[in-house]
Amino acid sequence: MEDDSGAIFPSEIGDEFRTYEDFLDSQIKPLDLYYLQDQEVARQLVELGHKGSSLEREEFETMKAAAEASRLASKSQQKKLANAGKELKDNFLRAMAEREEANRSGEMTSIIFIRDRNSHGQEISGYIDYSHRLKTEDFEPYFSGQKRLLPRPTDLSFYSWKTRVAKYNTSLNYEVITENQSGLLFENKEDRKILNVDPEASPGDSSVRIPVQSDLYVHVVFYDHILRKP
Fold first, then answer.
1. Which of 29, 63, 161, 212 has its CA 20 to 30 A from that of 107?
2. Which residues does the chain have with pLDDT short of 50?
3. Where is it localised (predicted)?
């Protein structure tokens, strides 16, 4: 309840004590009650500062209110799911929605392969670190249909079928391995496991490959990697 200086913190008041009397009782030792034979007298001695930490009732109530306000503020600041309340009409949007919470919490790190045409009609494809993009941009426009999720030159990989130029980038969750006979590989930064995106090969330990039929894109595949927590 206290640091080395004897200070009492609001968060500890809110977590440990329901009432001021509970706080006073926490400062009373069994030996005190043995000699005083009266719990109310023992409480008064604590309140006056003769035993344990001195904290008046008004100070206690103020600190408890501050702790509750902090708890409520923290709860209200928790980011709601971007798909909440959205009408998801396509399999791709529903697949993203099913994975959103797990990718935000860190239980899963999904990679999305998308092949389609950009706003200029040019065919592009690439691998997107879904968890990374969720943390760095607002996904509500994607779930509401205002924007289309497409690979960018800053994603894990990006390929322009017009220029034949490929780009590769490390993300928050993955290292890209390009020099490999098996083709493109992604190494998860947390558990160091390899995710293989070759459709003819196994995706790897703790990973699954799930193609999704979509009316929005030419080709979509989800690679879900489950993180094993110690």
1. 212
2. 1-14, 32-33, 36, 50-52, 76-78
3. Cytoplasm; Nucleus
Based on the fold, state whether residues 73 and 99 are members of the same structural domain. Answer: no
Q: How far apart are CA 165 and CA 122, in angstroms?
A: 13
Q: Are residues 119 and 192 in the same domain?
A: yes
Does residue 133 form part of some domain? yes
What pLDDT is recorded for position 225? 96
pLDDT of residue 181: 80
Residues 6 or more apart whose CB falls under 8 angstroms from that of 186 comprise 111, 127, 156, 174, 175, 176, 177, 194, 195, 197
Structure confidence at residue 47 (pLDDT): 53
Of 217, 199, 200, 204, the closest CA to residue 109 belongs to: 204
Give yes or no for a contact between 154 and 170, defined as CB atoms under 8 angstroms apart.
Answer: no
Q: Count CA atoms closer than 13 A to 212's CA, side-chain side.
A: 23
Q: Does 142 share its domain with 217?
A: yes
| Residue 60: predicted pLDDT | 54
In the DSSP assignment, the letter for residue 67 is H
* Predicted pLDDT of residue 80: 83
Q: What is the 3-state secondary structure (H, E, C) of 121-167?
A: CCEEEEEEEHHHHHHHCCCHHHHCCCCCCCCCCCCCEEEECCCCEEE
Residue 194: exposed, middle, or buried by beta-carbon count in 10 A (0-12, 13-18, 19+)?
middle
Determine the pLDDT at residue 109. Answer: 97
* Containing structural domain, residue 131: 91-226
State the number of CA atoms in the 13 A half-sphere of 202 facing the CB: 6
